[in-house]
Amino acid sequence: MANEDKKSFEARLERLNEIVAKIEGEVLPLEQSMALFEEGKKLIVELQEELSQAKLKIEEISGEKK
User: What is the DSSP letter of 26?
Assistant: First the structure.
């Protein structure tokens, strides 16, 4: 299951990178830009949450929990 979670994280991160590249590299219709921005923002929130959970677990395991 951990590998599936990692793949899921990596797949979402790759999708976020694709979105950023598309928004930065192309002139898109406003609606498409907004849809991509919304998808990207959702991915950012999900990825930040997953990273926060991983950090807490690492701190707990290493005894560094504050």
Answer: S
